[in-house]
Amino acid sequence: MGQKKLIKFAAIKTYVNVLEYPQGMPGKWNAFFDKLNKGAYPISLDGLAVGSNNIPLKPLLLELACGRGEYALGLARLFPEQNFLGLDIKGNRIWKGASIANKDSIKNVAFVRTQIEQSIHYFAKQEVSEIWITFPDPQLRLSKAKKRLTHPQFLRLYQQFLQPGGIVHLKTDSPNLYLFTKTVIELYGLTKIIATDDLYGSAFMQSDQWDERCAIKTYYEGLNIASSNRIHYIQFKIDQVLPQDKDEILKEMIAAFEVTETHDAKRERGSDAKEN
């Protein structure tokens, strides 16, 4: 591991707004952010109250595979009355967003270093109001389809802590991940709210479906990927049971998908722009 990464890993261990594999957190996030906002440091996780405990309950939104946390930070700036949490396994990426939050005194955003698969251990039932997934690895190989963050295997996970009617947002430059997600929504009968394969096209931006939150751009998106690829966006609800017997049907359907060359495809060959 490089010296810079070691420095960043050491730094986040001292940050009050970064938790690494936190234990016993389900139901405590509202109390955690209340302490964070009041500057009540250090924060004892064991001493946090479960539930509101007379603390005004604020919506909790997640950014999954948050990278440098640009979306969590951007949303936190726009909506100070809500709380935001970025999850990612890469501590050197989380360091960037957490450092900015500390520098700018943004107290309604924090970060958790963990695998997304472990997220069920950190949230109580219906504790999360919305989920944002921005430019995740599309896992283009069919053998890795179950690792896509909109695969039913993950949606079943989110469903355990997402509020009824809670919305999932996907923003990607991968046509394949976009098509895959649309297929999942249709096959399992989920509610699709918005879907566009040209998010920044003038027609969509001028329509009543445009969401101002989509204007936030990540570091990866800022690398000018849109110069050759359109940005795709889907907003949907996980409002149905997702039968596991349909997973095999899904596998057969996506086997016919054409793999389109994008920056994400290049990542499959080892040139991950988000690491730079």
Report the portion of residues in β strands: 15-25%
Provide the CATH top-level class.
Answer: Alpha Beta
Tally of domains: 1
Rg: 18 Å
Question: Distance N terminus to C terminus?
Answer: 14 Å
By CATH, the topology is Rossmann fold
**Could you state the CATH homologous superfamily?**
Vaccinia Virus protein VP39
H/E topology pattern = HEHEHEHEEHEHEHEHH
- Outline the biggest β-sheet: 8 strands, mixed
What does this structure look like?
There is one protein chain. The chain has 276 residues and is of the alpha/beta class. The chain has a single domain (3-275), classed as 3-Layer(aba) Sandwich (Rossmann fold), CATH 3.40.50. It contains nine helices and eight strands. An eight-stranded mixed beta sheet has the order 1-4-3-2-5-6-8-7, with helices on both faces. α1 crosses α4. The radius of gyration is 18 Å and the shape is globular.
SSE topology:
Elements: H1 3-12, E1 18-20, H2 29-38, E2 60-64, H3 70-78, E3 83-88, H4 91-103, E4 109-113, E5 128-134, H5 152-159, E6 162-172, H6 175-187, E7 191-196, H7 202-205, E8 232-237, H8 247-254, H9 263-268
Parallel strand pairs: 1-4, 2-3, 2-5, 3-4, 5-6
Antiparallel strand pairs: 6-8, 7-8
